[in-house]
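Q&A log
Question type: sequence-to-structure
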Amino acid sequence: MDVTLLGTGAPAGLPRPHCPCAACATALGAHARAATALLVDGALLLDLTPGAALAAARAGVSLGGVRQVLLSHPHDGPPVEVPAGLPRPGRVPDGRELALLTGHRVRAVALDAPGTGYAVTGPDGQRLLYLPPGGAPAGLESGSAEHYDLVLADVVGRPDALAKLRSVGAVGPTTDVVAVHLDHDVPPGAELLRRLAAAGARAVPDGTTLVAGAYEDVPDVPRRTLVLGGARSGKSAEAERRLEAFPDVVYVATGGTRGGDTEWAARVAAHRERRPGSWRTVETCDLVPLLKDDGPPLLVDCLSLWLTDAMDSVGAWDDAEWAGGGERALRERVRELTEAVRHTRRPVVAVSNEVGSGIVPATAAGRRYRDELGRLNAAFAAECEHVVLVVAGQALTLR
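Response status: OK
Response body:
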């Protein structure tokens, strides 16, 4: 089953008309995208957008063989002139299936937001799923969902849709996940590709023809990632973003509750509110057993607070205790942690502070903590496939 993407952008296109934002200013040439529309085997058109006939001509395909035009957006949108020879656009009711004379079967997929998703089965049995912008499947049950060879969805805007599909087995390691409805939320180019790769997805230019079921060399999702950054740099948001397209994440909070500290409570609440509801939170600094167990992905936030707890436990703040065995005990704790990271079989994303680039601490204890955190970050990073430094909200890939 061949799928030609006549457009891959948001309904308003990219760049948006008259938008002065930085993403739109750089979405030029190869990075420009028309509103998303799909031509399936030259016979089925999913979403009729302005300039569809011209887009088809640029892609080297014809709309002359189209037998059905289906709409997916929550509304029919602005009036679009129907090119000569095309049937009037329609919509399949939720739960109903449409059989085409070409041998394609199109089933409407219920969503958790207005709009219609379409599951298309080709004459050769290959399956694709197409979701409108802002939509995710509703009512999925584990083991009951079809497995899709190709998924085209709003990966940037609704990463949880991908998590839902993965949780029921509808998306697996061989599924080609392609992001569409791309808007100006993420700068085009390398940053977009980096974010999608972390979710196991990719983006392609307008006019690309995909073959459902064909193997695509998409970068593997890294098993171990360390995200570094300074205060309020966006490091925690970057770490969470890397796992929001996956189900059943365990969020490991190492900071505790700090009873009576209202400012800390506000920080914790802000983190909790932006996490997906399907994630489970565990408050502990005992990371080694979690790393040794099999299970869903771990997000550890953060190693700097783990180090504070570890230094408390070995008496690192007292010079005599530090010299009398505290330093040796801390080295052993760090070695156990990094050894567990090396052998873990579950995906891990860990967050840590980068504090060695600022003011030299005025106290010996502060300097000791700074030095030990630098050593911990270096040891942990050595066990990770990906290491990222976040500065001013921008992620810089170090490895």
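Response note: The chain has a mean pLDDT of 90.
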